[in-house]
């Protein structure tokens, strides 16, 4: 099975709390009733986009690490795939080989459900 890195456990807890607090209000950007107003963020993972992302030799979480990308790093990619619960981007390396990074999660049908990157 897949193991989630322990150093990122706090993200799982924070996102679970945010989604729990939205129960019965799913899909709404805001909610108001009798003077109370609540606004939900569009993506529960936005606050964590400042986290590093691993660039790997293969499109698997256990593939060997090439580098750790920091917030603001720019990666040009030429292809993507959706498998094993992630949306993977493929980067052409200077030596003609490829590097891969998980850019977010996808569901079993391949629909993106989160984004850990900013796309321009």
Written description of the protein model:
With 120 residues, this protein is mainly β. It has two domains: 1-46, no CATH class; 49-120, SH3 Domains (SH3 type barrels, Roll). The protein is 11% helix and 31% strand. The strands form two sheets. A five-stranded antiparallel beta sheet has the order 4-3-7-6-5, with no helix packed on it. Strands 1-2 form a two-stranded antiparallel sheet. The longest helix is centred in the first third of the chain and has 13 residues, at 9-21. The protein is elongated and about 60 Å long. The mean pLDDT is 81.
Walk across the major sheet and give the strand order: 4-3-7-6-5
Coarse shape: elongated
CATH superfamily of the largest domain: SH3 Domains
Q: Which residues sit in consecutive blocks of at least 5 with pLDDT less than 50?
A: none
Radius of gyration: 17 Å
- The tally of structural domains comes to 2
Task: Tell me the span between the first and last alpha carbons.
Answer: 33 Å
CATH topology name of the largest domain = SH3 type barrels
The largest sheet, given as strand count, sense and whether it forms a barrel, is: 5 strands, antiparallel
Structural class: mainly beta
CATH architecture of the largest domain: Roll
Number of alpha- plus pi-helical segments: 1
- What portion of residues is helical? 10-25%
- Extended strand count: 7
Q: Calculate the mean pLDDT score and round it.
A: 81
């Amino acid at each position: 099975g897949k193991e989630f890195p322990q150093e990122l456990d706090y993200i799982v807890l924070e996102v679970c709390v945010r989604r729990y607090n939205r129960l019965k209000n799913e899909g709404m950007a805001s909610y108001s009733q009798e003077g109370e107003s609540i606004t939900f963020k569009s993506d529960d993972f936005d606050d964590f986009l400042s986290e590093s992302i691993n660039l790997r030799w293969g499109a698997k979480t256990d593939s060997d690490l090439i580098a750790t990308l920091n917030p603001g790093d720019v990666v040009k990619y030429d292809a993507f795939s959706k498998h094993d619960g992630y949306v993977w981007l493929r980067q052409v390396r200077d030596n003609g080989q490829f590097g891969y990074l998980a850019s977010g999660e996808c569901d079993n049908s391949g629909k993106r459900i989160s984004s850990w990157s900013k796309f321009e």
